[in-house]
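quick one, two chains, predict together pls
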Amino acid sequence: MTVRKFRPPNRLAKMIKERGGILAQDAIAAAEAGVESLREASIAALDSTLAEIEERFGKGAEGRGAESFESLYVLASRIIDVSAFVEGTGLDRAAMSLCGLADNCAEAGAWRWDAVDVHLNALKLLRSVGASLPAAQRDSMLQGLYQVSHFRPDES
Amino acid sequence: MTDALLPSTRINLERATVLVLDDNGPSLDILSQVVSGFGVKQLHRAESVADAQGLIRTKTFDLVISDVQMPVTDGIEFIEWLRREGGETNRFIPVILVTGHTRTSQIFKIRDAGANYVVAKPITPKVLLERVFWVAREDRAFIECDTFVGPDRRFKHMGPPPGTDGRRKDDLPAEVGEAQTPNLSDDEISNMMRPAKVQI
């Protein structure tokens, strides 16, 4: 097998140090201001995603057995995407745990509905009171979720 | 090792042409706002790999920031395509992958996709700018062979990027700090170097 090792020109490297430009602190501040302008729309998207998860995968969803693992994974990923706007609630970590659960279910080829239900309840709780929960309580709850999502019956 | 990005560091991305790719609209909006805030004037958005491939075929980019998890074709396949078929002007550009969660089955695929860096979502402007600065300043060689095209994966572990705590349990801070014990004497150093007979 032929292996070629070389150093291609990096145009970005030249540009970034050209005269002019802005200070890093100003770039970060401008980016943060731009992101902040998306707060309302992003939180609406977050709540809409949470509602869709409940509608399609909640306990009362009649057709949830026919849903794909991928659909739940994608919806949980969308929560993570916009979770910077609800920082401190633990929603991002709960959604990551749900992604892990969907991934594990896909690997096993079977749903673990008890684990899905626990995650959906946790997401609802964290969305409403996550920021006001004592940090230790929130952390132990998230730790529990992680254990549930990564539980493998064959290894217990 | 690249320098740390300090608040007073001046960066110029006005002439950079950047492609951001994410299938989730709100996430793409966030990425776009962040990149625009960095002073990028030529920003192109794509909501699918097919759209991104179309842009790559017709424009010259200086940086790509792409989501990993996407339907039909994901970010990993896109970067693999870019590194092999992206045309000579775009094949070797810095690529930052962004992902909220990595599937167990994709850990090695992401490593081998040919990206320069992987950043965890949710994106924050500070972290993304640090990584953009890092990929602009790193001097890793490119490797091209039958099974891989991208920045050399076998670079020496130089510790976490400057200004970060690192993710590994044994990551040490970049600052060495003051010596905790006296320096070795010349004799002690000589003794360590002296050839000696050993019983085998």
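The radius of gyration of chain A is 21 Å.
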